[in-house]
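Handover notes (outgoing to incoming on-call)

Open items:
1. Catalase: sequence verified, structure written out, both below. Nothing else pending on this one.
2. Nothing else urgent.
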Amino acid sequence: MRIGGVLPSKPGPRVIHYDKRVEAMKNLFETAKIKHLAPDTLEVTSKTGLTTDHGVPVPDTDNWLRASDGTHTGPFLLEDQIAREKIHRFDHERIPERVVHARGSAAHGYFRVFDSRATKYTTAGVLTDPSRTTPVFVRFSTVQGARGSADSVRDVRGFATKFYTEEGNWDLVGNNIPIFFIQDAIKFPDFVHAVKPEPHNEVPQGQTAHNNFWDFVGLQPEASHMVMWAMSDRAIPRSYRMMQGFGVNTFTLINGEGERFFVKFHWIPELGVHSFVWDEALKISGQDPDFHRKDLEEAINSGAPAKYTLALQILPSSREHDFPFDILDATKIWPEELVPLQEIGEMVLNRTVDEFFAETEQVAFCTSHVVPGIGFSDDPLLQGRNFSYFDTQITRLGINWEQLPINRPVCPVMNHNRGGQHQNRIIKGQVNYWPNRFQAGPPIPKENGGYIEFAQKIEGMKARVRGAKFGEHYNQAELFLNSLSEHEKMHLIDAFSFELSHCDDPQVYETYTKLLCAVNMDLAKTVAANVGGQVHSSPTRKPHHEKSASLSQGYYMPKKPTIKSRRVAILVADGFNGAEVEAMKALLKAGGAVPFMIGPRRGKIWPAGKRLVGRLRTLTVEDLQGQRSTLFDALLIPSGQQSADTLVASGRCIHWVREAFGHLKAIGAVGEAVSVLHRALKLEVTQLEFASSNDTAVTSSYGVVTTGKYNVGSIATDALEIVTGGEAGFMSNFAYEISQHRCWKRELDGLNFRVAY
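Catalase structure tokens:
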């Protein structure tokens, strides 16, 4: 199973160790932006003593200056500048949180294009020059919830990328879903008010399962396509590293001949597109609300940086009106069958932030920030975003927000803007305007790299209208549904049923189940039956039955199976097979997975036999009670009679197995440990097949992999690749099941519903 380098061992779940090796690895990938941040970065050590903000050494930070006779306390003295500064600074630490996308995580990295193939479309060096390594900073986020909400809620995820290019900052401000709820930016306040907690009681937080959201989208048919995506598995991603990113809006590219092209931007993750199951996402919201934030940090610090391919959909201006939909409508995709993707480069996120507030919280993005060669279209949502985002950043961070270290370009910045709160630059000279007698700070002409807008011809009448094609709202909603796999359709129905069942106003859920009739009658009838809704007596439009393969998450499965960065829980108790566990851990690490030892107690667990040193040393484990199966991608139980007996008798262990089975995860067991699976699953799931004892043959049944023995010969067989079948070893079969993310056949055949978890 040699598929990658051996990763540093991890002593326990979510324990990130910042040692010299991690710092050395970070230094290898320093970009121009990291070096640019260095003068503004201060490391706190035992040698950096306390001072006030004006640099005076502080001798005592624990006691306010007061009047005292030395025995009894007395009143505070207002003259204590040290205490007053400490309290004043604390009182003003917070800035206004974002209205949307408040909950976020971020990382540094770089972007490179594969070659110069995009030169025929654009003059933007960041998209055409393969000799460049462009620093990037990416912030992922949820939309609805506050800063303190959970990561795993059902929601759209923000995917905002700041490219620090040689020509200035380019902000690609997107989401993990390619469309949006509204067509015109003027509706944005209405949408956000509706999706946010209801005004009379500030409930609910971090979810759309409430009257106001469904009232709004039920009365706004243009949202029907986006609602389908939001109720799909796309809205509960397993990881930021396992979701797509989209620019959402239609932008333009301009080439050296002055020709304009329409473009949509796509990020495609290296690891495929994967999601939680809904019950799992609900539980993680309480068990580990910071799951995605920790996942990103853990992967980077474990040597598994997040990687994405940048792909473009490009249309010449002459084809703008060639489609049944308007290409400027942000509630519509461009189906890949009509406009294929062109992969042009790769982004790697390989460095965590040094301080969350200064970087993740203060980073600010604007859709209007583009560089020469990239421009805007008449997309009515983009037009409004270009106004709104800049205004938002001024409110949060002040007019000089672009001077903050994380927002500062790495290229020279010079203009005649002056003053304002928090002005950090000192600009020498006698003039601050143009033209001036010194010819100081002149405009830069096009031939020297100045930004030039495309000379677009405009004609028409002033009116509050939308294009004719903007009036169709259901064809692509049906296209999305038709394109899903069977298990994805099941999840979609469950999501609609869950959300609408939380609406207590009959007018709300009855209106929406009627609207679903325009998407698909069978979907509408099923959801209405589940939530007590109503449907029309006949379809309100003729279905087209068309599909687009790339709309299903399964389309993005890696061509070569991988278990890179997958979290595998190895369940052990005293008396486990020590040599077997060491071999399993080595093989998992060789494949890039991250194994964790879990036992009935936190601390040392002893292998079978004598208490030896060396390879059969004790293992330090996390406990079953403190961790949960939801936090791992797979479950593995090694052999050992005493260990198996202990785990069989543990109700918590049995629940772990049942829950992992219910969540469709890969489960493996060897020898005596198979009895744990019998105890947890055999009575309820009679279709499952298990390996017989004392047999080295491997049995793989519904994602559950077992074998009677795991000896030296089996280990040798496993040192090959991730494959499945009788010729492959136990760990190769187990790794293959992990690489599939989940065993959907287990769900389609109804096995998971027979187990209480």
